[in-house]
Amino acid sequence: MRTLCVYCGSSAGRRPVYAAAARTLAAVLAAREMRLVYGGGSVGIMGILADACLERGVPVIGVIPRHLNDLEVGHRGLTELHVVETMHERKALLASLSDGFMALPGGVGTMEELFEAYTWGQLGLHAKPVALLNVDGYYDPLVRFLDHTVEEGFIRGVHREFLLAGTEVAPLLDAMQAWRAPPVPKWMDPRDL
């Protein structure tokens, strides 16, 4: 895994711990000589992460839809900035440029992107690791919900394991590096989707 796609908020959130986690991720990416691919924004956790990576010499590739770039939230100092027409194009290009996906704290857009990557993995459309960086318990309710979906029979245990979670950057990246996608059955029960 050389290139990590990170989904994260266009807001900085209420607590400084979220920005600190983005800076820690940048430092670990630099130490591992990895590249960052992200949504191309200059604001919130997105901007903090991109700036911290650039300060440490990490190549940063952004992908942003034209309408957001035109609102002047596109980052102007990236290694590469791809301006696309739609959100669908953005997500497809983010996925094709990346070897794995990680979500930092964020809102609905972060969740939507994360769950699409998670679903694509479950369906066998990619064999890349998908992970949550659970900063200071931010994702605890989501992790509990996903475990609940297994208990209630909406997700199989093997599919639940497609989404990794961790509280520290380096061990989570190690887990992502070691992760191997289980084989996708030739036929899947529609209830598993």
Structural account:
By secondary structure, the chain is α/β, with parallel strands linked by helices. Helix content is 46%, strand content 17%. It has a single domain, classed as Rossmann fold, CATH 3.40.50.450. Strands 4-3-2-1-5-6-7 form a seven-stranded parallel sheet, sandwiched between helices. The mean pLDDT is 93.
Mean pLDDT across the residues is: 93
Beta-strand portion reads 15-25%
Number of beta-strand segments: 7
Structural class: alpha/beta
State Rg: 16 Å
- What is the makeup of the main sheet? 7 strands, parallel
Please mark out the parts with pLDDT under 50 across 5 or more consecutive residues, or reply none.
none
Order of helices and strands: EHEHEHEHEHEHHEH
| CATH topology category name | Rossmann fold
What would you call the shape? globular
CATH class: Alpha Beta
| CATH architectural category | 3-Layer(aba) Sandwich
Strand order in the largest sheet: 4-3-2-1-5-6-7
Count of alpha and pi helical runs: 8
Q: What is the terminal separation in angstroms?
A: 27 Å
Q: Helix amount, in percent?
A: 40-55%
Compute the number of structural domains.
1
Short description:
The protein is of the alpha/beta class. The protein contains 8 helices and 7 strands. It has helices spanning about 15-30, 45-55, 65-75, 85-95, 110-120, 140-150, 155-160, 170-180; strands at about 5, 35-40, 60-65, 80-85, 100-105, 130-135, 165.
